[in-house]
Amino acid sequence: MTESQEAQVSEAQIAVHWREEEYLYPPESFIAQANAADPAIYDRFSEEHFPDCFTEYADMLHWDKKWDTVLDTSNAPFWKWFVGGRLNASYNCVDRHVASKGNKAALIWVPEPESEEPVAVTYRALCHRANGFAARLRDELVSRMAPGDVPKAEARAKELRAQIKPS
Fold this sequence. Notes:
The protein is mainly α and 167 residues long. Helix content is 43%, strand content 10%. It has helices spanning 3-7, 11-15, 28-33, 41-44, 55-58, 89-93, 98-101, 123-144, 149-164; strands spanning 69-72, 80-83, 105-109, 119-122. Strands 1-2 form a two-stranded antiparallel ribbon.
């Protein structure tokens, strides 16, 4: 679109598509289970408990290796959180929820144009897609390697898989 075409699109024409202006209040059951529902959170996360207070939420995640330091401020403003720790974001966001929430929506895709229906992707389907994509990446990497490098890469992949298995 050229600049002259962009200028011809009015805000009113764009606003027609702003469904986000609608406010939906969460159900009481959702509010009750929220992490911040407890008024004591203000004390637990007060400045006097900083930065150790964040371990409360870090402990809700699965860590392959627990951190050594909660917050490293030695190179401000490039602070580092949970230094020495290692986690797998995909496992924490998707895989660990498959057993208990496998058929629930992990994400809901709302396409444009609005005439198309939203698509819900369950935790199980998302896990399947993520693993399929990872396998394609692995196969592509292996196909580009020299023959002597393949056994080394397979051995390293086996080591990494053993390290990330949940306990």
